[in-house]
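We treat protein structure as text, and this decision shapes the records that our systems exchange. Such a record has a labelled line for the sequence and another for the backbone structure tokens. The record that follows is passed on verbatim for readers who wish to inspect the format:
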Amino acid sequence: MDIAAIAAQLEHTGYIILDKPLLDKLVAQLLTRCQHDEPSRFHAAHVGRGTDKKLIHSLRGDVIDWLDAANSTDRAYLLCMEELRLGLNAALYLGLFDYECHYAIYGAGAGYARHSDVLVGKRNRILTTVLYLNEDWQARDGGELVVFEPTGDGIIATVNPTFGKMIIFLSDGFPHEVLISHNTRRSIAGWFRASGS
């Protein structure tokens, strides 16, 4: 991962799309981990946190499982993200304190309505990352991530969720949505957070 280039682009535009920043072998191992073959692992994703947490399928249709540092594959990914955290802190003084992430699976017909990754009144998430785990993804499969201007008006990027692609963006700067998938769509969504969050 070219952390210097990532930092420069984030400083310039607030987001960056990377074609294949990680080794294919690791992405393939992560794909193997992101299978809904253990129903006890994955659960329906909610909107909000704490007492405001709600299950609203019309807004968000994925099932999730948080990565586990005790698993060697998950740990390898978390180590890559720790390297990124340290590098971005050194380059941009972002004060990134930790990183949380989960596997996300969208079945056919599922999406995620336009939203922000920062909860109202809190600046707990600083940078959002999404790594895509979809082999042989076709345009007809849908499931694109649409990233909007900070005002929410214009579209600045439409990201096809192809194998190994990653997007990183300022969490409080860019509303975004996941368009309806027409095939099973897999990814890892994560957030670098501020201290105390």
Q: What stands out?
A: The chain has three helices and eleven strands. The longest helix spans residues 72-92. The chain has a mean pLDDT of 91.
